[in-house]
Amino acid sequence: MTRLLVVAGTASGVGKTSVTLGLLSALRRRGLRVQAFKVGPDFIDPGLHEVASGRASYNLDGWMCGREVVLATVARRAADADVAIVEGVMGCFDGIDGTSDDGSTAQIARWLGRRSCSSWTRAPSRAAPRPPCSASSASIPR
Q: pTM of this prediction?
């Protein structure tokens, strides 16, 4: 069975892509088959994912494609992978409007049966005592 990790952030620009690319590269170097996905209609990050993982990366867009297409895409594309990594979009709960999780990373995580996702916040460069990134777990409501 493929293990799945959702990488999310508190906002855009906090390092989700850097963390995702690092994980993809490290896992691939260990000999694992790694399948990457990107939440939302993005074409730049999936290209970077492909370089790091050695496999094509696929978009998961809940708002444009719906739940069944997202689930079918993950099932089909990650079937032969050891690990699947889903890179989120914007902030974990940011979606198409401020009233629901439609189009958000949280929505995709919930559909994939993940009640939490890794959340990365880049510390300001002047904050020398703090680590460059801090990790936490965001709870995804059912």
A: 0.81
